[in-house]
C-alpha cells in the first residue's frame, strides 16, 4: 500500500505547487497503476475537478469501462461527498486513505457514503496509510494560504 500512497503524495505535491489544495489520487488494478491525478479545481475553474473524480475519469477511459470493480483507489485525504459518491458509482473495490478529514470527509468522518447500507455497492476502506505525510501537506498548504492572506 505504501508505494501507491507515495505516488498519491507526489500527485498532491503537484497540486500544492499549482496553488491547488494538495490532494492526490492513484488508481491501481492488478498491481498496475492505471491513472494518477491531483486537484485542478482552481486551474480548471471546475468545482468537480477533484483528484478522485479526475483519476476515476482517466481510469474509466483507459480501461474502456465505468465499472472499476477490480480497482483500488489511493487518495491522500478522505474524499468529500461528491467524490465518495463517484467512488460508489464506479464500483471501486478498495479505498485507501492517507488522512481522514473531519470537516468534510464522506468515507467515515462526517458521513460514510462509501459504506452506506442502502447502497448496492460498498467499498472496503483502509485509513491512516502514511497519515502524517498526507496530513502535513494539508497543514503546510493552509498555513501558507493564511500567511499570504495576512500580508
Automatic annotation (TrEMBL):
GO molecular function: tRNA-specific adenosine-34 deaminase activity; zinc ion binding
EC number in record: 3.5.4.33
The record's free-text note on cofactor binding: Binds 1 zinc ion per subunit.
Lineage start: Bacteria, Bacillati, Bacillota, Clostridia, Eubacteriales
PROSITE patterns assigned: CYT_DCMP_DEAMINASES_1, CYT_DCMP_DEAMINASES_2
Residues reported to bind Zn(2+): 50, 80, 83
Class of enzymatic activity (EC top level): hydrolase
Name of this protein: tRNA-specific adenosine deaminase
Names of the cofactor(s): Zn(2+)
Keywords: Hydrolase, Metal-binding, tRNA processing, Zinc
SUPFAM superfamilies in the record: Cytidine deaminase-like (SSF53927)
Amino acid at each position: 500500500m505504501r508505494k501507491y500512497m507515495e505516488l498519491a503524495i507526489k500527485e498532491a505535491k503537484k497540486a500544492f505547487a499549482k496553488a491547488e489544495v494538495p490532494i492526490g489520487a492513484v488508481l491501481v488494478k492488478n498491481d498496475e497503476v492505471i491513472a494518477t491525478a491531483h486537484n485542478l479545481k482552481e486551474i480548471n475553474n471546475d468545482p468537480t475537478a477533484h483528484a478522485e473524480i479526475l483519476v476515476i475519469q482517466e481510469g474509466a477511459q483507459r480501461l474502456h469501462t465505468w465499472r472499476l470493480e477490480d480497482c483500488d483507489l489511493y487518495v491522500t485525504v478522505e474524499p468529500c461527498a461528491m467524490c465518495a459518491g463517484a467512488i460508489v458509482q464506479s464500483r471501486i473495490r478498495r479505498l485507501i486513505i492517507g488522512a481522514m478529514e473531519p470537516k468534510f470527509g464522506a468515507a467515515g468522518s462526517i458521513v460514510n457514503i462509501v459504506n452506506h447500507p442502502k447502497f448496492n455497492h460498498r467499498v472496503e476502506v483502509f485509513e491512516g496509510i502514511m497519515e502524517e505525510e498526507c496530513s502535513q501537506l494539508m497543514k503546510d498548504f493552509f498555513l501558507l494560504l493564511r500567511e499570504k492572506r495576512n500580508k
